[in-house]
User: Fold this.
Amino acid sequence: MNKKKPFVLRLQPEMLSALEQWAQDEFRSVNGQIESILNDALTRAGRKKKSVSEGENQ
Assistant:
């Protein structure tokens, strides 16, 4: 099982507000939105390997 590790993230109020709206627009939690953004950035930067299932969806 893939266990998630909690940590504190400090954001400027304006950034949090923008993330909340973005998450709401995409029917996600703020945490889910941040994970999605980070996953996309890591993949684009070549720092995260695509899994077989991810490659099939694109």
Q: What stands out?
A: The mean pLDDT is 89. The two ends are 25 Å apart (CA to CA). The chain is about 55% helix and 0% strand. The first helix runs from residue 13 to 25.
